[in-house]
Design a protein that fits this description.
The complex is a heterodimer.
Chain A lengths: L7 E5 L21 E2 L8 E5 H12 L32 H4 L7 H9 L1 H4 L12 H13 L3
Antiparallel strand pairs in A: 1-3, 2-3
Helix pairs in contact in A: 1-5, 3-5
Chain B lengths: L1 E2 L2 E2 L3 H8 L15 H27 L5 H27 L10 H7 L8 H21 L7 H25 L13
Antiparallel strand pairs in B: 1-2
Classes of the chains: A alpha+beta, B mainly alpha.
Chain lengths: ~140, ~180
C-alpha cells in the first residue's frame, strides 16, 4: 500500500479517531498538501505523506530521526511498539516503566501534551495544531508499516 | 532549586539563561514543579550539544569556503553560549546537566559521511536550525516558569536567525505564509 518517497495517505473520517473520525488508507493521489475537513459524518481528512515528511522534519527533526537515536529515540516502527522499549536508548524512568503500546491515539495525546500522558517523562515539546499532529502521526504510521 | 518536587527557580538560574545584566535581573520564585523544567532544559542542552557537534563536523569537513566557514564558526559560538547558559541554569536549579556525546556519535547519527559538498553541509545545518527553532517554540507551553518560557522564545529567535541566514546562502525560498514556526 505504501511506496516510500511518493506516498499518499487518504484518511476518511466518520467514527472516532484523532477525535474526529476513523481512518482508511489508500494510495489515491491528492491535491491538497494537508487538508482537514470539518468533523461531519463521512468527512475526509487528506494527508500528503510527502508534505507530512517535511512537517515531521520541521517539527520533530531537531531531536529525532527515523533510524538513529539522537536527543530522542529513533522513530521508525514506533506505531505498534511498546512504549519505552528500545533497549539501546536511555528513556526517562517514567517512559521506561510505561505500560502501553504506541498507537495513533496515544501518539496524539503524547504530541498534545506528553507530560499529561506520562508524568515525569522528559519531552516538553507540544504540538497544539491537530492537523499537524494528524499529519505527523500518519507519517510515523507509514514508516511503521 | 529542586526541593521535594516543589521549585524555587533562583535568580541565579534565570540570570544564567538571560545573561549577566540581562533583562531578567529580578529574583523569580515559583510554586510549580521544577523537575519538569529541568528535564526540558536538559533536552535543550542535548540539542545544543548536537548542534555544536554538527557545526564542528561541517568545519572539519573541508567542504566550506572560507567566508562560509567563518559564519559557521560564529553560529557554533552562539550554540556554545546557549550550552553554557543552559548548563549553568540546570545546575543552579539543582539538576545535573547532560554531557555531550563523542563527536563520532553525532557524525553517525547525522550521517555525516554522506556530506560531499558545501551545500550538503548547509542543508544539514539549516534543517537542524529550523528544527531547533520549532523545538524551542514547542516547549514553551510546558514550562512552569514564565521566565524560562521567555528564554526559550529568545533561543528560538537565535535559531531562526541562523536558519534564515543559511537559507539565504542556499538560495532557498522563504515561507510564503506567516506563522509557519511552531504550531
Amino acid at each position: 500500500m505504501f511506496n516510500r518517497g511518493n506516498i499518499h495517505l487518504w484518511l476518511i473520517g466518520g467514527a472516532s479517531f484523532f477525535g474526529f473520525g476513523f481512518v482508511k488508507l489508500a494510495t489515491k493521489p491528492v491535491e491538497a498538501a494537508i487538508a482537514q475537513s470539518d468533523s461531519q459524518e463521512n468527512s475526509a481528512v487528506v494527508i500528503d505523506i510527502a508534505e507530512a515528511e517535511k512537517l515531521y522534519l520541521r517539527r520533530c527533526g531537531a531531536c529525532h530521526s527515523l533510524d538513529a537515536h539522537r536527543i530522542g529515540p529513533r522513530h521508525r516502527g514506533v506505531v505498534g511498539r511498546e512504549a519505552g522499549s528500545l533497549a539501546d536508548y536511555e528513556y526517562s524512568p517514567a517512559l521506561r516503566n510505561a505500560e502501553f503500546v504506541w498507537n495513533e491515539q496515544q501518539l496524539d495525546q503524547w504530541l498534545s501534551n506528553p507530560e499529561a500522558l506520562v508524568p515525569g517523562q522528559k519531552m516538553g515539546f507540544r504540538i497544539s495544531n491537530g492537523a499537524e499532529r494528524n499529519a505527523i502521526i500518519a507519517y510515523l504510521r507509514a514508516q511503521s508499516e | 532549586m529542586l526541593n521535594g518536587g516543589k521549585a524555587v527557580l533562583s535568580a541565579s538560574a534565570v540570570l544564567a539563561l538571560s545573561g549577566a545584566g540581562g533583562a531578567l535581573s529580578h529574583a523569580y520564585a515559583s510554586s510549580g514543579d521544577a523537575s519538569q523544567d529541568v528535564a526540558i532544559l536538559n533536552v535543550a542542552l542535548a540539542l545544543e550539544h548536537e548542534a555544536i557537534g554538527a557545526y564542528q563536523l561541517g568545519a572539519e569537513s573541508g567542504l566550506l569556503a572560507k567566508d562560509v566557514l567563518g559564519v559557521a564558526v560564529q553560529f557554533q559560538s552562539h550554540h556554545k553560549a546557549h550550552r553554557d547558559a543552559l548548563a549553568d541554569a540546570i545546575r543552579a536549579m539543582g539538576g545535573d546537566a547532560v554531557d555531550a556525546k563523542d563527536l563520532s556519535e553525532y557524525a553517525s547519527a547525522l550521517n555525516a559521511a554522506s556530506l560531499s559538498s558545501q551545500t550538503d553541509v548547509l542543508k544539514l545545518a539549516a534543517r537542524l536550525e529550523l528544527g531547533a527553532a520549532n523545538a524551542y517554540l514547542g516547549v514553551i507551553p510546558s514550562f512552569q516558569s514564565q521566565d524560562l518560557a521567555q528564554v526559550s522564545a529568545r533561543l528560538a529567535a537565535d535559531e531562526t536567525m541562523h536558519w534564515t541566514a543559511l537559507s539565504s546562502v542556499l538560495g532557498a525560498p522563504l515561507p510564503k505564509n506567516a506563522l509557519t514556526f511552531g504550531a
